[in-house]
Amino acid sequence: MHGANRLGGNSLSDLLVFGKRAGAYAAAFAREQDHGEIKEGQVADAEREAIAPLERPEGESPYAIQSELAESMQELVGIVRSEQDMERGLEKVMELKERAVRVSAPGNRRYNPGWHTALDLSSLLLVSEAITRAALLRKESRGAQFREDFPEKGEEYGSVNSIVRKGEAGQLEVRHVPVPEMTTEQKEIVAEMK
Questions:
Q1: Cα distance between residue 109 and residue 66, in whole Å
Q2: pTM of the predicted protein model
Q3: What is the mean pLDDT of residues 43-48?
Q4: Count of CB atoms within 10 A of residue 122's CB?
Q5: CA–CA separation, 70 vs 4, rounded Å?
Q6: pLDDT in tens, 79-115
């Protein structure tokens, strides 16, 4: 949409425009799927997992893990990246994932920001791992990714998207898929922008 994206400016409009479009598409897709029956066992497991930090008398603070994650991602997987730093960043994410399952959030369910942070940790860690794994595989600099060790654009990456999914063993897997050809409408918009 903007070529080399400006992290602080254009990305806000990208978020609004493409977030709305992605949300509408996801909702339409979900309505078309046969999701089957709700499995009570899965619901009970999710509830137990969510309540566990409240019931754990001893454990690490979720704020400590959140803070370490933010610091590590900023330092090792920030704007300027290298393979060595990102490998260290991935190791840190995996270490924090192990620690996160033992966090404690004393108190009750009402007005407990520590509990909310504990609930957020799995999503924060998942996104951090996905970003790091995908960035490691893209051995190039393009848009918001700048690799010190690969400062130029790589031709092979200009026509693919990096897709991150959970694999058979529950581990994240990254694969590159071809970018779909632009629609006539998209080509017209690009032509107007030149």
A1: 20
A2: 0.77
A3: 93
A4: 13
A5: 25
A6: 999 999 999 999 999 999 999 999 999 888 888 999 9
pLDDT for residue 5 is more than 60: no
Q: Considering the chain, what percentage of its residues have pLDDT values greater than 70?
A: 95
- Report the C-alpha gap between 130 and 171 in whole angstroms: 10
Crossing angle for the helix pair 83-100 and 113-137, to the nearest 10 degrees? 150
DSSP-based helix, strand, coil % in the chain, nearest 5: 55, 10, 30
- Using CA atoms, how far apart are residues 76 and 9, in angstroms rounded to an integer? 23
Using DSSP, how many helices (H) and how many strands (E) does the chain show?
A: 6, 4
Contacting residues for 97 by C-beta, under 8 A, at least 6 apart: 125, 129
Cα atoms found within 13 Å of the Cα of residue 180, Cβ hemisphere only: 4
- Both tokens assigned to 77: 């997987």
Amino acid, res. 71: E
**Residue holding tokens 């790091």?**
132
Spell out a b/e string for 60-94, using b for 16 or more CB atoms within 10 Å of the CB, else e.
Answer: bebeebbeebeebbeebbeeebeeebbebbbebbe
* CB 157, CB 142: distance < 8 Å: yes
- Extract the tokens encoding 82: 């290298």
